[in-house]
Amino acid sequence: NLKKWTAAGALALASLGVTAHGQSADALIDKLVEKGILSDSEAKDLREEADKGFTTAYQVKSGMSEWVTSLKINGDFRGRLEGFYADPDVEYIDRTRFRYRLRLGVTAVLKDNFEIGLRLGSGDIDNAGGIANGIDPISTNQSMQNNASKKGIFIDMAYARWSFLNGPDWSGVATFGKMENPFVFSDMVFDGDYTPEGVGMQFGYAFNDRQSLRLNAGGFILDEIGADSDDPFFTGAQLRWDGTWTKCLSTSAGVAVLGIANEEALANSAVPNINRGNTRAGTGGVLVYDYNPVVADFSATFNLPSAPLYTGTFPIRIAGDLVHNPGADEDNTGCSVGVTFGKSGKKKTWEVGYTYKYLGGDAWYEEVTDSDFGAYYETAPTGGSTGYQSGTNVKGHITKLAYSPYDSLTLSGKWFATELINPSPSSSDSAMNRLQVDLQWKF
Description:
Elements: H1 2-14, H2 21-34, H3 40-62, E1 68-86, E2 95-110, E3 114-123, E4 142-143, E5 152-166, E6 170-178, E7 197-206, E8 211-221, E9 233-246, E10 249-261, E11 280-281, E12 286-287, E13 294-304, E14 314-324, E15 333-342, E16 349-359, E17 374-377, E18 387-390, E19 394-404, E20 409-420, E21 432-442
Antiparallel strand pairs: 1-2, 1-21, 2-3, 2-4, 3-5, 5-6, 6-7, 7-8, 8-9, 9-10, 10-13, 11-12, 13-14, 14-15, 15-16, 16-19, 17-18, 19-20, 20-21
């Protein structure tokens, strides 16, 4: 076929530059189809031939094995100005600090639906808080201090993933290692920087192009004790329903059951002692209660055609969470409710959001909740110190503003106005204000 060979020759010329392959080759094929030079089936054959040629060239140039189909690099850098400010009658010295976060990830996609991932991240050794091994599991921030001392880079994720179900209706993914959290929760349950270690499973079923059901499950190692066979670990299962009802309305709802086994081994000295709020006993800070909460959440998103100074469809999202831990006698509930107008992240988009959060001291395990949500302790909790402490036993308001002047850059500000649910001591004023101003670039 003369026109096919002519098109193939033009395609080969367009594909000589390996880095421009994905854009130039596909654009040329689309143009040839548009002009009637190629049929859809001929275009499909050409794309497959071009992909094979590019894969061969890529393997030769990179030295990668033939079963590696692609290698992806991504990451982000965030600079932050942060301030802590107490009410006038609180005995707390206001402070300001500069911080940064750097994350760099590499993902190798293999044949037979396998994937290997690695992400490196910054971490604050200087403020490790007496941690003997490792650093903060719920933050990759690094404070600027100590005369520009050299800082650390750590493994933030290291995992193997297999997509074993890839049908039109069913999907299934299994992940092993240190991974992105397979559950879908707000930071009332898991801090967004928490990358658990263990096994994650995700199943999905699409009833149609508008309604789908998902099951997320996981088993995470919390600590390994060489002299004891009863290691503490986490298990959980979450069922979610996602629906698109009209062009303007979509919803998401979920219910989950979580649990921690052998929690008596999670004393303050056993793992990084970052957050506060759980009821603990003894000089070692042993957990008093079980942590096996039920978590429910719901959100609804309304899409408007446009909004002032906003590019594209304008979303308005209302969301709420509820957590109840029957393993504790009191202070065992938590809730959050919020609304967000817009969504930043793309060029010339913005968002404004407000959330109210209430998280009882024993509603959930303190060491995995949001590390930015805290208040003032006049007297030290068990295993902790006085001053600002994040974790559970906190309630308050969160306001966020963000704007993305470019696809790669987002400027945001967040303000927390919080206080302890049960102050320490009970007569003290625990109110705090925390301000974060961020510049974040993604690549």
